[in-house]
Amino acid sequence: MTLALRELTLSHFRSHKLARLSLDGRPVVLHGRNGAGKTNILEAVSMLSPGRGLRRAGLDEMIRKPEAVGWKITGVMKSLHHVHEVETWVEAGTSRQVKIDGKTAPQVALGRIARVVWLVPVMDRLWVDGAEGRRRFLDRMTMSFEPGHADAVLSYEKAMRDRNRLLKDGQRDGQWYGALEAQMARSGAMIIANRNQAVAQLLSAQKEAETAFPVADLSMTQPVGEDLPEDSADLALAFAESRSRDLMAGRTLVGPHRSDLAAVYAAKGIAARDCSTGEQKALLVSLILANGRALAESFGAPPILLLDEVAAHLDAGRRAALYDEICALGAQAFMTGTGPELFAELGARASHFEVTEVDGISDVQEVT
């Protein structure tokens, strides 16, 4: 069974006034010079899943200028035994809308029919930058296994923002905190359980596969000296007991929003943050491939992969190995690069498109 886009249409999205791609399920290569609009196509595909997309941009930022009429993305999606028409759009100054098979749907419904995972250049610093980026990276993978994880994260963050407001205002009446902490505890317990399950699935998928990419030992950690209860009742108690300390800080100092994803290059016993740039990239690729293998087993098909400038920091051997693994997995991977030579090893195993830009308007043409 497969998960793949068969058609993709972009209207007034970023640099694309109108772009149409007809696809057949094979990996997709998009090559062209920097600034031509390649990543914009990947971002459009990412918007066919829940959330803010691979750039985490504001909705109005994606509207093509100078028309500023809004944007629309339409896709025909083969998902397991079904074919769906998916639409998402924004009119200037309005919220994002979604339709699946002609019916209005919430964003989370996109995650039930399409699993999309991405690797973009900004993630190359994942292991050396702050914990927030690693949490977001893990939560995106966790959503691919459990789409409802997005709702748990949103619910937790909303309740925590309200609690933090009370803390900043110096509110000491416990009755004001009870309902918010109960909501945080329920959602927080779900977040912790979902993340732990995702890490277990990634570890299993890495260790059970023979691959050219290194295995990363993964674990969830908390700041030194902090414990994270996993049960909702224990979490609620921890929030209540932390109020005095939180009041002094003006923010919540305990909870899954302070968790971190730790990774170790298993074969060398070296923390990912201390690895070379090439090794850090290889560990990221390993996790993306593991995510694909785990989803192929649990969902029934590998996810759509968005790999922006994926050849960066990969030597020719690992690059060829990556393409072989993508094809063996049966994943529809959208890959970008500056020239076709970066994808020579793929040959006819992929659809190839050239992306050009003239006077601020991008154009996409299939290369046969």
Reading side by side through the largest sheet, how are the strands ordered?
2-1-4-5-6-7
Spatial shape: globular
Major sheet size, sense and barrel closure: 6 strands, antiparallel
Tell me the CATH superfamily of the domain at 1-115 and 300-368. Answer: P-loop containing nucleotide triphosphate hydrolases
Helix-strand pattern: EEEHEEEEHEHHHEHHEEHEHEEE
Which class of secondary structure composition applies to the elements?
alpha/beta
Q: C-alpha Rg, in Å?
A: 21 Å
In the CATH hierarchy, the third-tier topology of the domain at 1-115 and 300-368 is known as Rossmann fold
- The chain-level mean pLDDT equals 94
Based on DSSP secondary structure assignment, what is the total number of beta strands? Answer: 15
Low-confidence stretches: none
By DSSP (H or I, 4+ residues per run), the number of helices equals 9
Strand composition percent: 15-25%
Span between N and C termini?
27 Å
Q: Write down the CATH class of the domain at 1-115 and 300-368.
A: Alpha Beta
CATH architecture of the domain at 1-115 and 300-368: 3-Layer(aba) Sandwich
List descriptors.
single chain, about 375 residues, alpha/beta, Rossmann fold, 6-stranded antiparallel beta sheet, 15 strands, globular
